[in-house]
Description:
The protein is of the alpha+beta class. It has helices spanning 11-22, 60-68, 90-100, 115-123, 150-153, and strands at residues 32-36, 39-46, 52-59. The chain has a three-stranded antiparallel sheet.
Amino acid sequence: MVYAKRPFAGPEQVLDYVGRYTHRVAISNNRLLDIDNGKITFRYKDYRHEGQQSSLTLDAQEFIRRFLLHVLPAGFQRIRYYGFLGNRYREEKLARCRQLLGMPACPPVQESKDYRERYEELTGCSLRECPVCHQGRMVTVATLLPTPDRQTLIMDTS
């Protein structure tokens, strides 16, 4: 049996809270400030002082002990593989979560377009038609491969 009560701040706060822990490593490299003489200094958020950034220096052994508290034992998986983020019904469950939170539905994934189609959408110019007469179709006749001595062909005109 699991005891669960309604979240005080609402479902948005719960998703925000859980989201901070599902896709991260215990500590990122940019938080490590110094490693010297068996001591490690790192930055952390001090919630006792309004979330102010502070630094802490620990012996390497204590730092590793604390880090390993966040490493899952063999056979366990991170939370993101379960519940509404589980692989089997992820799409349907996320759609239901969006509906319950009053969020707009996720737009359907469009099939990837060719770079020529994306260019035409963005610029209004087609890469398939002739840039001079705008009537003929451009066709690849040959592809020029780079040559090793290409640098000698480029002349400095300055």
